[in-house]
Amino acid sequence: MVRLFLALVLLLTLSTKADGAEPKGLLYCSESNITSTNPQRYGISTTASSLSYALYDRLLYMNPETKKISPGIAYLNEIKDNGTTYIFKLRFMGIAFHKNKLFTPTRLLNAHDIAFSFDRMINPDNPFYRPIDDFPFFKRSDLANSLYKVKALDNNTVAFYLKTQTNDLTPFLASDNAVILSLEYAQTILKENLPPETIDTKGIGSGPYRLDKYMHERFVRLVPFAPYHGPKPKLPALVIIHSNFSNKRLTQLFTGECHIITNPTPGQLYLLEKLNNKNVKIFERNSVIGTFLIFNTKNPSLDDDIKRRTIASILNLNEIKQMVFFEHGTLQSELNYQHNTLARKLLENYRRNIIKNIPHSGSLPQLRLTTPNLFMPLDDTDKIKTIFWLSKQRPLNLYVFEQNNLAITSHVRIAQIIKSNLEEYGINVNIKTYRTSTGLKKMRNGNFDMALINVFNNYDDILEPLVSCSYSKNSPNRKFFSDNFTNWCDKDLEDLFAQTHKEQDPLTEALLANDIYNIIAYQMPIVPLIYSFNKFVAVSSVKGTQSTPFGGMSFINAYMEPEDD
Amino acid sequence: MISYILRRFMLLISTMFVLTIVIFWIHVRLNPVGDAHLLPSYLSYTQSLLTLNFGKSLATGAPIIEEMKLYLPASLELLTITLLLSILIGIPLGISLAYFHRSFFDRSLVIIIQICRSMPVYWLCQLLIVMFCISIKIFPTYGNLNLLYDIENVTGFNTIDAFLSHDPNIIKDMLIHLCLPIFSLTILPLVEITMLSRSATLMVLQTNFIKAVFSRGVSLCYVARVHILRNIIPAIIPHLNILLTNLVSSIILVEVIFEWPGVGLWVTSSVTNADYPVLESIIFVLAATLLTINILTEIIITIFFPVKKRVNIKL
Lengths: 565, 315
Known about the structure:
The structure holds 2 protein chains of 2 kinds.
Chain A: H1 2-15, E1 26-30, H2 46-55, E2 60-62, E3 69-71, E4 74-80, E5 85-90, H3 111-122, H4 136-139, H5 143-146, E6 147-154, E7 157-162, H6 169-174, H7 183-191, H8 198-201, E8 209-215, E9 219-224, E10 238-242, H9 246-255, E11 260-262, H10 266-275, E12 280-295, H11 305-314, H12 317-323, H13 341-353, H14 380-391, E13 396-401, H15 411-424, E14 429-434, H16 436-444, E15 450-457, H17 464-467, H18 469-474, H19 491-502, H20 506-523, E16 526-539, E17 542-543, E18 546-547, E19 553-554, E20 559-560
Chain B: H1 2-30, H2 38-50, H3 64-99, H4 104-117, H5 121-135, H6 158-164, H7 168-205, H8 208-215, H9 220-257, H10 263-272, H11 276-304
């Protein structure tokens, strides 16, 4: 019997002689979890960003480098009613939706699809409505409080109605998360009596690739969509894989099981540089992981700005940069205009208005814009007195959390450096490590002194959620580390943030930003320790990929060159 | 005999009752029932469990039973292949070792077996990955099939579906993906079964009827198949229960390390997501399956290998 079974297996294997051909396609391994095929359901995430560009279309387009917004499948036709009604018109008439086993579209994309896509986020009567917590990116925008209706005026025109004037609508519509779904597909789901979640797990879009297979938290396989209205995709298949552990991702890159990996750790980058392997290339993506030390300002040891600034002034950030980030991090003081959209706008303004009016612009000194420093000098007497007082208090508890996806480096090592820095001055620190969920609970209850957190975001938007109280108001559950846990609010700061959202002129915006930085620097509820600009590592045969504005990758023009043996 | 079988079934039912109480207690701790009485809540909860109506996953919103259908076959594949290989290799190896007792072959293999026995499965997996995936690059590190391949889900079992695809590249890829997880899982039950068979065979070889058979010049293969095997199986089967339980816990580790899309990977992601309904369902299904297998093996031994027909072997 056993012999018969073995013979059968051998016969089957040999009779179907393998030609040894490797399957064609690109394997993209990301740390970001794959919880849905719909980017609306994610916060800022490399997966959402990549899925958005592969599967869906957006109304507007954001240039990943300059962050300039331009028309996508629609253009802004009119703003009326004192800036509270935005009218968009479709640019293309022949945009087709994908099909799958459940659904075959009978019509092309129109304004009703656009209205439905946003209506489901704000209208509780929509059968596909979900609570605001289920749309994390939208929730974190000011629009969550302002947008109250989206309506198709005709097949080509859609109107967005806001309660108050805001500058946030067009950036949101150009974001990776503001994708266009199919209303006809939604109606089919209802007609077939399928669960409403189907729209988020078996996504139908109009992007260059269509969904072939999705396995929750594991992978999404996409195949080219021939009737796509833009450039034809060149990859025969694209698989986005969730690979949680950074070491495993690097292994998979070397074994050929991943062609692109995201978020290499500083140690891995150091190793790759040392190896100088010509078969892999490293490139930057448009997002940053900021590592912050946050203070519980309700704690008596940390309840005034002098105490907090004293602690911040003792920290040796260069030591963290060298010892933990192997020089692959950027300190706040080292950030320049390349990292900051506002500074870039100022530079463009400078070039446009000053250089062009001067005949020999080549002789002009280079404008070097830096981000304002967040560390304000402290009076020595105050500092010494505070250090002495702090050294007499009970030890401060420094909380460190497991954050699998974002922990590209060891928080415990950073915590140890902070502890040693503070203990040199006699300030005792206890390091306590918690699981993410337990840690968040403790922080929500204000049951901490200091905490180390990682925040994944665009650099431009990284600080506001951490210090603004209006963000916390939107998120009473505070599920994310990027929420404000400091128990600190400043009315002037809130006003400045509100003004920044409305401001159009870059120079005024820069002045407002400077005021914001000043308040944070003097009050110091958080300390920005170091920024790590996210990177991709790809095998050199992968060509034509492009970073998306929110840290993902666009595969519209991607292809794979045959590898040399 | 019938009264024995009935007693075993009663034991199964009472243990299952305790199991449902424990799972219900966990459920109540996680989802307080409020003013509702515990007994009706328990009855309705147990009814749901027994009718496999596990509810929906908190993470995906999909029915748990549907997700189970996706993940369970992948683990069952590993379990079945591992057990088959362990038995098919372990028993003949154990008989050979006993026959060549105290020879160089016996002594050297016993040393190797003792080394394998003391090797933790998670460490062995890492070792295999470094050796065969990174250094020699002949095996993949994750999954049960290259994700660029698409095979139709006919039976839910990747191994069978790959053969049904009739694509030689897919079959080859599937077999390559099986190698390392199966190897790392098989080692421990294989050495255990080998040692059990060896000890049992040593006892059987001392019996007079075996000596008589050998004295008639019958070949070892014949004696092993007809006389030894029949007598050592009742001694091995009771130990399979423990092996199976250990194997289930090893499978969870191996699935996580090789990212094998089975119950182990599902359990770990459910723990991370605090998806308690999924965890309760998995605990119930695994515990109920192991309990049933335990009782069934006892009944099978009693029916097919009654005590009066057995050689008395105590391992």
